[in-house]
Amino acid sequence: xxxxxxxxxxxxxxxxxxxxxxxxxxxxxxxxxxxxxxxxxxxxxxxxxxxxxxxxxxxxxxxxxxxxxxxxxxxxxxxxxxxxxxxxxxxxxxxxxxxxxxxxxxxxxxxxxxxxxxxxxxxxxxxxxxxxxxxxxxxxxxxxxxxxxxxxxxxxxxxxxxxxxxxxxxxxxxxxxxxxxxxxxxxxxxxxxxxxxxxxxxxxxxxxxxxxxxxxxxxxxxxxxxxxxxxxxxxxxxxxxxx
Length: 243
Ligand SMILES: [Zn+2]
Fold this sequence. Notes:
Layout: H1 13-27, E1 34-39, H2 44-58, E2 62-69, H3 80-98, E3 101-107, H4 116-129, E4 133-137, H5 144-159, E5 165-169, E6 182-185, H6 190-198, H7 205-223, E7 228-233
Parallel strand pairs: 1-2, 1-4, 2-3, 4-5
Antiparallel strand pairs: 5-7, 6-7
């Protein structure tokens, strides 16, 4: 029988405080974690993970949003020649709101290439971040660029000896057949999440953001929270610390 639940065992205030301190130590690592959230386009990491990113950075961890391209293929009504600059600026604004950093993998929006040189380039980019945890898009997805970033991340994880914890995330409208197992409470960071998503003004966030909120409300129902972002850990990955 567990003495903790036996009312006959007296527990002093000092013991209670010591248990609380031990629990806190277990919950918080000794050093800040390095997190990478990879996505096909500016806006994808924010759509799927902005709440979780805000929770990580509030705890003092370092987060990089690694975009496969700069969104060259679409920026509302503006000329295509201006899209990379417009969407890079939007991504940097979103990262400022989330206290994260933006990085770009130099591919072209809508024309993702997955071949040996790109596998190596992407693995080098990830290795340079020395991440403890990496989030990437789920590979069964309507968009080629999302599938590409998923493959590139998986390959970097395999070729790099599975050194970081690997999680998949979902985005409204594109992710298919996704059954997550880990939920993160994002109820308290809704304003930051919304701000980061609406920073992508050229992408009509008023259309897709409500759909993503439907997802996080549904994930909340699954986990007993008001709103949750949910992830699927690769079954061969060690568990990473989620906020
Ligand atoms: Zn996308």
